[in-house]
């Protein structure tokens, strides 16, 4: 029994020691873990304290660097604003320069127009004076000289319609180059020699600027001089012979073509007056010719209603008293208009019972007016 009790006590003692051993190990582990956690927390606190200390104490170099960065940013912003300002200023300057150039160009054009107008006025006045002097200086040409010149012209007369234009667009009812209506002017108080003397004095004194200076100095008297020239020159109304004499080569060719188309028929005569070149068959008026700046006008004794306006463009002028006997008006400018005229002339001559003269030789009728002078005798105005 004692032995058993001793064994039991010994066994209990062993268990207690084991328990104490286990407890000691557990406590050590807990203490180590706690110490580790504490150490970690202390480390964190130390790091945080170091950060706070750094924040409280700023490095001077860092502060200076930061200031430089801010200044650079400000300068960059200012540079952007300056560039924008320069761009706006450049656009504004371009607009002002364009406006200035446009205004300068307009003023320059106005000046050129004024100078051109004055130049034309001056040349027109000088031309009228020259024509006046030429008419006075022209001597009557002897018949032999006229005949010789006409023979040469007849040999070289151009009646080829292929040399005419093809444009027939304005050969029907447009007459934009109609001669200006007659303007009646009162007889001036100054004589022709006085008008010419005043103009010549200004020309000698001011050369090419004489017209401008005369207008400035004479004021209303300037227009009295101009009207005097118009009156003495008869500029307000050139008669037909003068218009043919001064016509362009193209219009003279047209006139020759048209007149020869009529004159190649038998029994036809002509008579040139101030307004028309009238054509007769056996003393009956069958046609009248006139010219404008670009075309020849042909009035014929045909009924306008007998011909289609689309096939034969024409104008009915029967309501005008002067054209009652020749109411059919057409304009000659192109090849096509000449071909149409040939058909109409054939109808007209058939109606008047006359035929083409096979022995007819072309004549340069426009050249006959080369020596025309209203103050001289002109035998060629009728045949």
Description:
The protein is α+β, with helices and mostly antiparallel strands. 58% of the residues lie in helices and 8% in strands. Strands 1-2-3-4-6-5 form a six-stranded antiparallel beta sheet. The chain is elongated.
Protein traits:
383 residues, alpha+beta, 9 helices, 58% helix, 8% strand
Task: Furnish the topology, listing elements before pairings.
Layout: H1 2-56, H2 60-137, H3 143-155, H4 192-206, H5 210-218, H6 220-233, H7 240-245, H8 249-263, E1 268-272, E2 277-281, E3 284-291, E4 296-300, E5 315-316, E6 328-332, H9 335-351
Antiparallel strand pairs: 1-2, 2-3, 3-4, 4-6, 5-6
Helix pairs in contact: 2-6, 4-5, 4-6, 5-6, 8-9
Task: Please provide a brief summary of the model.
58% of the residues lie in helices and 8% in strands. By secondary structure, the protein is an alpha+beta fold.
Q: What is the overall silhouette?
A: elongated
Strand content: 5-15%
Uncertain segments of ≥5 residues (pLDDT<50)? 171-181
Biggest sheet overview: 6 strands, antiparallel
* Tally of separate helices: 9
Instruction: Give the ordered list of helices and strands.
Output: HHHHHHHHEEEEEEH
Number of strands: 6
Structural class: alpha+beta
Q: State mean pLDDT (0 to 100 scale).
A: 81
Helix content: 55-70%
Distance between the termini: 195 Å
Rounded radius of gyration (Å)? 57 Å
Strand order of the largest sheet: 1-2-3-4-6-5
């Amino acid at each position: 029994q004692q032995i058993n009790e001793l064994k039991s006590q010994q066994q209990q003692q062993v268990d207690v020691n084991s328990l104490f051993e286990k407890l000691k190990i557990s406590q050590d582990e807990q203490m180590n873990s706690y110490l580790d956690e504490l150490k970690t927390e202390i480390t964190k606190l130390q790091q945080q304290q170091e950060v706070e200390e750094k924040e409280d104490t700023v490095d001077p170099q860092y502060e200076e660097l930061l200031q430089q960065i801010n200044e650079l940013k400000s300068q960059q912003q200012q540079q952007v604003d300056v560039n924008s300002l320069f761009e706006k200023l450049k656009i504004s300057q371009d607009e002002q320069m364009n406006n200035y150039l446009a205004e300068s160009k307009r003023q320059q054009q106005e000046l050129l127009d004024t100078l051109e107008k004055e130049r034309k006025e001056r040349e027109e006045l000088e031309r009228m004076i020259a024509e006046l002097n030429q008419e006075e200086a022209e001597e009557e040409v002897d018949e032999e000289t006229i005949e010789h010149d006409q023979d040469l012209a007849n040999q070289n007369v151009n009646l080829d319609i292929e040399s005419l234009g093809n444009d027939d667009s304005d050969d029907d009812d447009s007459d934009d180059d109609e001669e200006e209506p007659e303007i009646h002017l009162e007889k001036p108080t100054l004589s022709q020699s006085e008008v010419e003397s005043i103009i010549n004095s200004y020309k000698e004194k001011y050369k090419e600027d004489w017209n401008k200076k005369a207008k400035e100095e004479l004021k209303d008297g300037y227009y009295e001089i101009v009207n005097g020239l118009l009156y003495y020159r008869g500029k307000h109304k050139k008669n037909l012979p003068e218009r043919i004499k001064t016509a362009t080569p193209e219009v003279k060719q047209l006139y020759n073509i048209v007149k020869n188309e009529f004159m190649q028929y038998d029994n036809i005569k002509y008579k040139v007056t101030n307004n028309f070149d009238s054509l007769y068959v056996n003393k009956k008026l069958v046609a009248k010719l006139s010219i404008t700046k670009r075309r020849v006008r042909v009035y014929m004794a045909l009924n306008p209603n007998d011909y289609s306006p689309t096939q034969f463009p024409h104008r009915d002028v029967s309501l005008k008293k002067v054209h009652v006997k020749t109411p059919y008006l057409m304009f000659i400018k192109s090849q096509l208009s000449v071909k149409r005229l040939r058909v109409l002339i054939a109808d007209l001559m058939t109606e008047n019972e006359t035929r083409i003269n096979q022995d007819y030789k072309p004549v340069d009728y426009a050249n006959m007016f080369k020596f025309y002078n209203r103050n001289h005798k002109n035998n060629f105005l009728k045949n």
